[in-house]
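Last lecture ended with a question: if I hand you only a sequence, what can you say about the shape of the protein? Today we answer it with a concrete record. The protein is Solute-binding protein family 3/N-terminal domain-containing protein. Below, first the input exactly as provided, then the predicted structure, then a couple of comments.
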Amino acid sequence: MVRVSLFLMIALSIFACDSQRFRLRSGPKKVDWKEIEKRGVLTVLAENGPASYFIYKGKNMGYEYELLHEFTKDMDIRLQIKTVHNFDSIFTKLYNFEGDLIAYNLTVTPERAAMVNFSTPHLISHQVLIQRIPEKYDPKKDSIPPPPLITELEQLAGKTISVWSQSTHLTQIKKINEALNLNMNIVPLDGDISTEEIIRLVSKGLLDYTITDENIAQINQIYWDNLNIELKLSSDEEIAFAARLNSNQLIDTLNYWLADKKNKSTIAEVKRKYFHRKRLPNKAGSEYSSSSGNQLSPYDNIIKRGASKIGWDWRLISALIFQESKFETYKISWAGAFGIFQFMPATAASYGIGPGSSVKAQIKAGIRKLNKNYKQWLAIIPDSLEATYFTLATYNAGSAHIIDARALAPYFKKDSNIWFGNVDSMVLGLSRPKYYNHPAVKYGYMRGSQTFDYVAEIMERYTEYKHAYPEKNDK
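The predicted structure:
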């Protein structure tokens, strides 16, 4: 079988199939580049996710956001982002003039091209299968070996594939299933579950397989390093920005900017930043892991001295440091966080350090920051252990979203002063509209799964460290 021919056949059948039609009437009002330039603001309707737009420790980021940030900077106008969490409403909002441009990792299709004016494609992607990399089989511990890695479409026969019900991926996998007679169990998931959350569930073993665009998969592989994204499920697809059909000047201006030679290197660098980063090697099990038997890291003494000053266990701080940087002192993340405690530059400056500061200075600053947050939570939550959990969560997500999660807790019969099984579930919920659109929430959407796992994993690692490096006063 020729794979390309199959994808072409499926693509043609998708375009031919009936779908829900969207009638667009722009009316007499017109807002094009002339009007945008006059008011000095380009308003963009964006998805809340790394391929489009998101906030990381207070900093605006996202692949499409960074392209448009450079564009508006060159055009000497401001960029305003409005996040849209329900894709079904995106075209309505555009034609209601709530925004000028859509940045939603939007695939170019003939149907959509009849609704909107697409820019020149800024990215080429294709659909891929998301699956867990099989773990090493140990017959002494495992009753059955893990399923093998799927490398051919035919191996999908009888498999359970969970896909967001509002995505083109659902249509694509149904067409593959029918074309090859694979008898798959295709499970449509509720639209309020984000693609990132579905991918997380696959990584954790709670779902078997899902599908997404390769660029989205590449980003999420950074968070979940046990995923394989190699099996291609579609031919290449173009991704572009979109404006109203009568916004020709805006699209022409944007297309000229995208095509300009001097911007090519900028665009390429943004692509590398989000989609082609090399994964840092996992050094668990190295001389810094609990199996080394003599020291946890080269910085044990510095951490112990700092921990004793604030009354914390040095092994807990070490568990946090491992979560942040794996003790890699010169690590700089794709978001700009640096060093052993992964300080963002603006926060680091307030503690008197920078990327060139010594490890000792960075550790001292990190412990000062932890102590400051801990005292703030202890004033609200008298239980010192619970205050510690909230301190860890704040280090990862900042205080705003954690305050939102606490505010939500009573509405869902949860205790706002207890982390595990209570506020942590509210944090996880803040990636879903039911939660982040609640009147009690002030700061909106967050990628809650990262903070949910962050606290749990640090505490699990802390327990391991206590067993590996016991002390006399351990209980």
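Comments.
1. The mean pLDDT is 86.
2. The two ends are 64 Å apart (CA to CA).
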